[in-house]
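Troubleshooting entry. Yesterday's outputs looked truncated, so today I'm pasting the complete records for two proteins to confirm everything comes through intact. If either block looks cut off, that's the bug. Protein one:
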Amino acid sequence: MSERETWTTRVGFIFAAVGSAVGLGNIWSFPFQTGSNGGAAFLLIYLLAVFLIGFPAMMMEFVIGRGSSMNPISAFEKLGYGNWSVAGALGVFTSIVTLAFYSVVGGWVISYIAGSLTGAYFGDAGTFFGAVSAGPTSVLTHALFMAITIGIVAFGIQNGIEKATKVMIPAIIVLLVGLAAWGATLDGAAAGYEYYLSPDFGYLAANFASIVPSAVGQAFFTLSLGFSVMVAYASYLGRDDSLPADGGAIVVVNTLVALLAGFVVFPVLFAIGAEPGSGGLGAAFVSLAGAFGQIPGGSILGFVFFIILLLAALSSSISLLETPTSYVVDNYDYSRKQVATGLGALVWAVGIPTALSTNTLGWYNAVVFNLLLPVVVLLFAVFVGWVASDLSADEIGRGTTLDAGFATTWLWWVRIVIPVAIGLTLVLGIQSLLIRAGVLEAAVILG
């Protein structure tokens, strides 16, 4: 087996980790989740979840990854806790399941880029979405998106992932800022901003049980937590880098991109009188595509928006594929190109049912958000906070100028606050899944 790669620079790691975080979760899922859960009411809980749960949870994955310099499954064995490898394996499994449906949505983006150039969705955005979101076209674009993802991962950490994200992330930010500035000129901007930034606390109180799991799940999804991605990425880090500083930079940039996406999406939706959150998982495609078809210069603006969406989707998909790839490359005598191609083909096959049915895609998404991500993060919290606490405290302090008090506070936060918060989220999430299953069952019976 060849020598294990590392990041060329610290900035390269930050860009790659930001790229993993700044994905469809920010630009596709975040506006939909915000619109479906009361706008600013959801945003408030989401921001709390990001900084109070997401940031310390990211440090947990960093500690495991850099402390072992191994992939998410082998990391626990390297640290002397081989029986905990199941936690890393569950994270890798979650990455595969997520990429299976995530790639389908990435394929939709490719269809919409083409549709922006031809004007194919301008007449009837709903019909266009129905044609490209499920069926043969979706299967083919799913394959094309996976092929691009495989190509980047196959080139490795330095020549593939690091170089790609150094181009993608600045491009995403610059283009989003431009679209947000344009959105401010629309007639619906003021109403969109009010919905987005002024919390309705009555709505929050009445819908707390549904908003919390959605917000925490969104925080995990958008920060790539629970997939073992940050374990894999941190395993390529140098020993002297400051984990809190790097994690803070990643969380702040990721959150700013999510907020920017809202400043683009909500002015557009309110400008055409569309209801935020309507359209389900296809909201960003149906509502926004319809809006682009109604405004001057819509074909150009639509093209730019969906290019941003494609870059964001790819920056995350490569991290999801890298997670299982790192395990196989670390433990078996296969080339990275062989592994990336084989695993990419497997992911494509697993995702075919979601390419044939948006209902199936919705189920994949719901299970990941409400069940898999919280379980994995909870397992990591128990391991870092209680099982390997001495190792964790030493690792979080390495390379940082923060005093020992930070490590102690962080460790107790991981021990107490995160498990309680995730436990509550998991209970509510499972309840949400059961309700969803009951609705689907009733629908079948009634049909």
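Protein two, checking that the full record survives here as well:
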Amino acid sequence: MAKVIAISNQKGGVGKTTTCINLSAFVALMGYKVLVVDIDPQGNTTSGFGIVGESKDNLKHTIYDVMMGDATVKETVTKTTVPGLDVLPANIEFAGADVELMNLEESREKVLRRALAPIREDYDYIFIDCPPSLNVFSVNALTASDSVLIPMPGDFFSLEGIAQLMNTVKLVKKHLNHALEIEGVVMTMYVKNNLSNQVAEDVMRWFGKSVFKTRIPRNVTLGEAPSFGLPVVQYNPTSKGSLAYMDLAVEMLKRDGKKAKPLTGLSSYKYKQPPTGAGNKGGKEKPASKTK
């Protein structure tokens, strides 16, 4: 039975999508079967895995079809360049689904949970990339999940966003999903300075042992990798950002009592050719190297 983890923070620009793409990629490469659900109408997670351009526009089905009841998850999942990792993709048509969901007579908050139920036995982990707002999509994600992973940059505005998120989690837990728990807080875009250290201390006081020891540094390769449609482990596997997400995957898996150890020979995971049908943003070529 898959563990379902919503990656959520109501503040934008905190590293939700970056964390979803790269954490899920490392978990899959460590031998676990993973599904990523893109429930953000911007579809950045879908693009970040190379499902972009014409391929993205012409997907047979997307999460929109799943949530409208026109397709099943099994009919909709798309494979990625990472072995063992599938994506339930989104595109721009999903942006209007919130209005349609609001018109449902009952249980609109549980649409995603019902859709995922038949395939939970097929995966070890399901990661849901949530939108940066409180709407019917984010409530669906929290209702469908076992836990919430909260990316948190080292600034005080993010502390305010966390307070809002925790109130949302409390309400969802009370009314829709009694089993919902906090998976943990991961410090993202981390820079060693007085402000970041102070914010980290405040987060530690608030969440205690729920805060992951691994901190994700501000790293240029984490921003570059999505433009090539690749997780960072396949773009620049030995970069500081890649190593940090590998450590986060190991730490999370060990928390769950699962076997996990850092990957060896990281340079061999660099992707050699562009994914089939993937758009190549910015006109750049994919980095060439040994494929694993």
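Both blocks look complete. Sanity check on protein two: The beta strands are 3-7, 34-38, 78-79, 85-88, 125-129, 147-153, 181-190, 211-217.
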